[in-house]
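Question:
When you can, review this sequence-structure pair and walk me through the tokens.
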Amino acid sequence: MVLDFCVELSRRMIMSGANVERVNLAVDRVLSTYELNDSSIFILPTYVSVSAKDQSGYSSVRQAEVPAGGINLTRLMSLNRLSYTVKEQHPSPDRLGALLEKASDTKDYSDFVVLLGQICAMSCLSLLFGGGLREIICVAAVTVLAHYLLVLLAIPGVDKILTNALLMWIATTVVFLLAAAGITDKQPVVIVTALMLVIPGIPLTNAVRSILCGNELSGGMQTMRVTVETMALATGIFLSMVMFSSEDLLNNPVGGTITNPFILILLAFGTSFFLGVVFRILPRDLWLAGLGGAITRIVLLILTPLCARPVYATVAAFVASIYAELLGKLQKKPSTYYTYPAIIPLIPGDLFFYTLIGINQKNSEMVRTNGFDCALTLVSMSVGFALSFAIAHYVRKAKNK
């Protein structure tokens, strides 16, 4: 019964956006509470297996598949807190199922509020990428289209890879049509902003982080899965570029129009604040989510002119992660609750887009430069997370001693 609880807890945490390390800690906490020995916890993004031996020497194993989910940080917080509750209260095993259902039943935003949060967040991003009022209108239209298209494709359970390709093909095609109608002349800004809505930057960063933290198998499989999903997004954009003339995409580069640091910080705050709604963060904590994005932007503004990309990306990710760890400790919440909104300014959607343009225009130098910088940014972010995680891990270990 305890193993059944551990497997289901793992499944729901992963489906809510937890990284492997967080799930491992929660399950290990429960197993130690019921004095189950010789435990083995094997967690992948799509599979969970937990085995253990009780005091009488009887061993058992439970395993289950993990279906696709979305980021719901309030539910993740509740499920993670449940593992601490089990450790503190030591409830009888037959009560664990009811406790799990109660922890999973969290308050959620309505679909309209989530959509409004997406529109506001993407509007802030479009301004950061160099757009204006016309681009905000286009971004809002594409965001609404993408939102309901994802809902529609989820009904028959269309594969995520096919969904990504179809979504970005339709979104990019709509952007080109809006440009043809004269509504916008900055297609790259609108396309990159739309891409940021669905690009799996957070799962990919978590995958690299898992590898750096010693979970090579899980991290490697998650990296392959997210890479394929990202390539599906690229395929959709590329197909639309082939259909329409993309020769003028370099005439309106992404970013660079806003130089006032206070406005940049404010837009970063707004992006993370409204994405906090999309990530289902509690209303009272949204300003802290926005503050995390603002702090990351401040670090980038200070360090970008002073050092190379690997350095400022690593330091910014480290600062964002430490911010999340400290807040999580103070408020007794998982650090992930604040990490995800804080790292949004670091996700290199523009570099990914220009890599695709380079492929489309057969510009090997453009592909090499932007593709390398994109990969380097993701690795540097993961290194920053790994350093923060290592410090937090050893601090917890020292306190337990």
Observations:
- The chain has a mean pLDDT of 84.
- The longest helix spans residues 364-400.
